[in-house]
């Protein structure tokens, strides 16, 4: 009987610790979007961009990528982002996908413009630049250097 009690207590502790880790991971992952402003941007390519990835302005993380999907009418890649609601984006904000490095992942950079018109939550960022294909650039550089 004592053995069953010990096994039950150990199981309860393991379950409690697991729930604690999941709670911590969810709260620190940026997965919750409460209190932020949501914007959309359409790109020709989003290679390497992932849900949960960073959105940065001037190198500072201000938000998170909450979704990305294919627009089946235009075949553009739509990215949904959520940023801090205290940040007001002008309508001429430029969004581009940038690599963290040669081996790193990609993240989204916002370059706010100078317009007096402010985007509202749910609006689309119109000026975009998709991901650059580094391997494609490298292969075209190598093939152009063969003397032809």
Task: Describe what this molecule looks like in 3D.
With 148 residues, this protein is of the alpha/beta class. The chain folds into two domains: 1-30; 36-134, no CATH class. It has helices spanning 2-28, 134-144, and strands at 36-43, 54-57, 60-70, 77-84, 94-99, 106-111, 124-125, 127-129. An eight-stranded mixed β-sheet has the order 7-1-4-3-2-6-5-8, with no helix packed on it. It is extended, with a radius of gyration of 22 Å.
**What is the H/E order?**
HEEEEEEEEH
Distance between the amino and carboxyl termini: 84 Å
* Stretches with pLDDT under 50, minimum 5 residues: none
Counting structural domains, the number is 2
Total count of strands:
8
Q: What characteristic shape results from the CA principal axes? A: extended
Helix-and-strand structural type: alpha/beta
Side-by-side strand order of the widest sheet:
7-1-4-3-2-6-5-8
Strand content bin: 25-35%
Report the sheet with the most strands, covering strand number, pairing sense and barrel closure. Answer: 8 strands, mixed
Overall average pLDDT: 85
Radius of gyration: 22 Å
Number of helical segments with 4 or more residues: 2
Helix content: 25-40%
């Amino acid at each position: 009987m004592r053995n069953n009690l010990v096994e039950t207590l150990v199981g309860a502790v393991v379950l409690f610790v697991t729930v604690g880790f999941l709670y911590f991971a969810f709260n620190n992952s940026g997965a919750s979007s409460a209190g932020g402003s949501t914007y959309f941007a359409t790109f020709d390519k989003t290679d390497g961009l992932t849900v949960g990835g960073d959105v940065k302005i001037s190198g500072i993380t201000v938000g998170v990528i909450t979704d990305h999907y294919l627009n089946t009418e235009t075949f553009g890649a739509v990215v949904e982002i959520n940023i801090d609601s205290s940040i007001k984006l002008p309508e001429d904000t430029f969004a581009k996908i940038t690599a963290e490095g040669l081996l790193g992942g990609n993240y989204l950079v916002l370059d706010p413009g100078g317009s007096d018109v402010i985007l509202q939550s749910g609006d689309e960022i119109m000026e975009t630049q998709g991901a650059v294909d580094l391997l494609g650039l490298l292969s075209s550089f190598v093939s152009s250097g063969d003397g032809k």
